Amino acid sequence: MRDLSAIFKAYDIRGLVGEQIDADVVREIGAAFARLVGGPAVVIGHDMRDSSPGLSAAFAEGVNREGVDVVSIGLASTDMLYFASGNLNLPGAMFTASHNPAAYNGIKMCRAGAAPIGQDSGLADMQREVEQGMPESGATPGELETRDMLDAYAGYLNQLVDLSGIRPLKIVVDAGNGMGGYTVPKVFEGLPIEVIPMYFELDGTFPNHEANPLDPKNIVDLQAKVREVGADAGVAFDGDADRCFVVDERGEPVSPSAVTALVASRELAKAPGSTIIYNLITSKAVPEIVAERGGKPVRTRVGHSFIKQEMAKTDAIFGGEHSAHYYFRDFWRADTGMLAALHVLAALGGQDGTLSALTHEYVRYAASGEINSTVGDQKASLAAIKDTYSGRDGVTIDELDGLTVELPGGAWFNLRASNTEPLLRLNVEAADEAAMAALRDEVLAIVRG
What are the φ and ψ backbone dihedral angles of 433, each rounded to 5 degrees? Predict the structure, then answer.
């Protein structure tokens, strides 16, 4: 029996093309997915990686083999696939490895209406079936239909956020040679926004920089261009364009927590008293601002499957993560960086001030950002941190997701293990830079020995 544990992750499938993922295994995964979700059809999209068209075609063959039809939408961002799943009310599969290097590919899957699939909601069952090898069903093969969803996707987003009346803006957009280069021109078509494009050429080798805007080195070009052309803002998308990262008119990063608070405020203005989801690494400013504006803040673990489950349970209108994933009830509770970007631009263009002035009210504390440490024994390091802080007066510790330690005076940190690598991820927040740096260094000294 084969072992596929290396590619079946917590929320998706991902691995090295040719070594861990190839057409044969993907065909079997497609068949297992069809058995999991049933008929009548599955919608499939793919990103711009060289391996994506072939792998998505093999997946479609596996789906068809089980008697289920396929609607292929071709090139797509991940949120465009979620749109297709919601709009067509069909289960979906997106071929992408997001911001991972060119040698990787993967599959993000959802049920009809963009409902999430994770280890506990189907992925583990699919892994077991493919590892064991399931006999072919003998069903009459399904059919393959191709459909272009780009216009419908762009039209839907522009219905949700009306930018037609904003003042003219100049925006730099860095697509990182990813799918933003495909979707941005259509979404921004006809809006009073001058788009200065960077790296819009679809190229899965990522020749300019990694398509991961959360890493500061990958937004240096965007920051420089914003300053050079005197833009009102800059936006960077990751490889599959489901996350967006924003910089202000000075080229300074706007934290995803500030974007979460800004968008939450706009959504609460539309639906007063609604629930807003935030993950436990998001700034404390987010639940404070949500509560101040009459909303109900609800804290969750990190990860889209947890966010989406909590959104469904609480009927939340919006959710945000520290990693620049933003989730909308109006978008089938799925994450879409493009819709978050439109909200930011609508807020900016709806008033006369700068983006830095607009977002200032949403930033209340100093944050470290995510700091990764390679450790040999994650459990031992976490236990050492717990032992160190649990005996201190006024310290509270919870273990919803890793360790979250809150100190007297409001400073806090979260330390959690990576799902996929021998890493511990640290996030620290305090009242000011000096307090944050002192706490950060204290924790890292214990973690790194």
Answer: -60, -40
Q: Which of 52, 56, 98, 323 is catalytic?
A: 98
Condensed to tens digits (0 to 9), the pLDDT of residues 339-353 reads 999 999 999 999 999
Q: Which of 132, 147, 129, 155 is nearest to 90 (CA)?
A: 147
**pTM of the predicted protein model:** 0.95
390 is catalytic: no
Residue 295 to residues 242, 265, 331, Cα–Cα distance (Å): 25, 9, 19
Give the E-state strand segments of 354-443 in sequence order: 366-367, 371-374, 396-398, 403-406, 412-417, 423-430
Per residue in 295-333, pLDDT (tens digit) is: 999 999 988 878 998 999 999 999 999 999 999 999 999
Domains of the chain, with CATH numbers? 13-148 (3.40.120.10), 149-364 (3.40.120.10), 366-447 (3.30.310.50)
Burial code of 56-83, b = ≥16 C-beta within 10 A, e = fewer? bbbbbbbbbbbbbbbbbbbbbbbbbbbb
Q: Strands, E, within 137-181: which ranges?
A: 144-146, 169-174
Sign of the Cα pseudo-torsion (442, 365, 212, 84, in order): positive
DSSP per-residue codes, 93-127: EEE--TTS-TTEEEEEEEEGGGEE--GGGTHHHHH
